[in-house]
Amino acid sequence: MIRAFSYNEFLFLLSAVQWTLALSAIAFIGGATVGLVIALARTSDVKAVRLAATGYIQLFQGTPLLMQLFLVFFGATVMGLDLNPWTAAALGLTLNASAFLGEIWRGCIQAVPRGQWEAASALGLRYPGLMRYVILPQAVKVAVPPTVGFLVQLIKSTSLAAIIGFTELTRAGQIVNNATFQPFLVFGIVAVLYFLMCWPLSLLSARLERRYALATR
């Protein structure tokens, strides 16, 4: 039975925001952890490690995120694992985010002037110390703006988790629309809520980028 859009429907959409933010936070933290490993592997002196990291990045960047979520969710069932939509969405987004963050941070690491690498090597620093004390502190300054920008994309990408049944903001919008049959109103509100989540981060990314550009002049 079709019902009118009411305050309760709006509250349901608003409550789904917390699951979108929670999923984004888990995927970002997990992706950052794995992504740092991937970035370090991409800049390693060991060729086999570099090739493995490159293959990982190309696999996840070269296939649609939607297909990756399908493979994680349904592939787990084939292998006898019982993953609920929440776990599958978090794992799929984490793997995808790690590939993109790894490549972003690889570029930031290699953006550090070569003279810094050579000077640190001349002081006798091996790779772990070189990264920890010389390269990574400088790369972080370059990495912050694109990392924040990627977080905006990650928040929007969580909408694909609706396909495997996870009730985040987009899925909540589908549920409300099926009950009220007012797609323009429902998905208009959903779009505004996404905008309110992403817009401050977009402003922060632009501000950090301008600050870094001024600092390097």
UniProtKB/TrEMBL annotation:
It comes from Azospirillum brasilense. Its main location: membrane. PROSITE patterns: ABC_TM1. This is Amino acid ABC transporter permease. Residues 17-205 form the ABC transmembrane type-1 domain. GO terms for cellular component: ATP-binding cassette (ABC) transporter complex. It is a multi-pass membrane protein. Keywords: Cell membrane, Membrane, Plasmid, Transmembrane, Transmembrane helix, Transport. The keyword Cell membrane applies. It is found in: Cell inner membrane; Cell membrane. Belongs to the binding-protein-dependent transport system permease family. HisMQ subfamily. One of its GO terms (biological process) is amino acid transport. The chain crosses the membrane at residues 20-41, 53-74, 86-105, 142-164, 184-204. InterPro entries: AA_ABC_transptr_permease_3TM, ArtM/GltK/GlnP/TcyL/YhdX-like, MetI-like, MetI-like_sf. GO terms for molecular function: transmembrane transporter activity. Pfam families: BPD_transp_1.
